[in-house]
Amino acid sequence: MRKFIAVLGALVAAPLLAQTTPAPAPAPAPTPSPAATPAGPPLPRVAIETTAGRFVVEADTKRAPISSGNFLRYVDQKRLDGITFYRVVKVDTRFGFVQFGTNGDPAKTLPPIKHEPTTLTGIQHLDGTLSTPRLRPGTARGDFTIMLGDQRPSMDADPSKPGDNAGYAAFGHVVEGMDVVLKIFDAPVSKTGSIRGAFKGEVPVAPVRIVSARRVK
């Protein structure tokens, strides 16, 4: 922030002391710096232990409170323990996404949440971004994706497009262990396997399981 300091340097000489050198004006007092804005509490982080290794994600509860809050409820209620990375979409080398979550299991799935588009949160689908997939806007529940590579603009909201243009709801990113996510992404997928008739060619041969998901203190 720029400081603008006004210097007042008027010197007044008395008529009878014209021969006297006037004393310099006192230096102006510096403008005080504004008080620093408190940084606030750090964003919550979650350590996810999997059969392929450990990675850590950070949920942006400030910009995407609904989506982040939903994810943290699944973590805090231990609903992600034992679930798998059941879908791997490989568009190219290190480009696509992995998907994990309750996969419709009624015993683990919470009610749906309101959709938070990227146009509202400002969080884009970049490499390592954590996001919530859905069918129609407002149907997202307990499934989550992690981006491999920059997935803009295909997964971001785009109001200029017709129809359903609200995209996925990005709400966080991987801060440690992206190599583990890449290992999950690179694992073999079945060419014929599917889940309830969906995701053909995207189902891992040996799905990676989440052992535990806990907040990092």
From TrEMBL:
<feature type="domain" description="PPIase cyclophilin-type">
    <location>
        <begin position="49"/>
        <end position="215"/>
    </location>
</feature>
<feature type="compositionally biased region" description="Pro residues">
    <location>
        <begin position="23"/>
        <end position="44"/>
    </location>
</feature>
<dbReference type="InterPro" id="IPR029000">
    <property type="entry name" value="Cyclophilin-like_dom_sf"/>
</dbReference>
<keyword id="KW-0413">Isomerase</keyword>
<dbReference type="Pfam" id="PF00160">
    <property type="entry name" value="Pro_isomerase"/>
</dbReference>
<dbReference type="InterPro" id="IPR002130">
    <property type="entry name" value="Cyclophilin-type_PPIase_dom"/>
</dbReference>
<feature type="region of interest" description="Disordered">
    <location>
        <begin position="22"/>
        <end position="44"/>
    </location>
</feature>
<dbReference type="GO" id="GO:0003755">
    <property type="term" value="F:peptidyl-prolyl cis-trans isomerase activity"/>
</dbReference>
<protein>
    <recommendedName>
        <fullName>peptidylprolyl isomerase</fullName>
        <ecNumber>5.2.1.8</ecNumber>
    </recommendedName>
</protein>
<keyword id="KW-0732">Signal</keyword>
<keyword id="KW-0697">Rotamase</keyword>
<dbReference type="InterPro" id="IPR044665">
    <property type="entry name" value="E_coli_cyclophilin_A-like"/>
</dbReference>
<feature type="signal peptide">
    <location>
        <begin position="1"/>
        <end position="18"/>
    </location>
</feature>
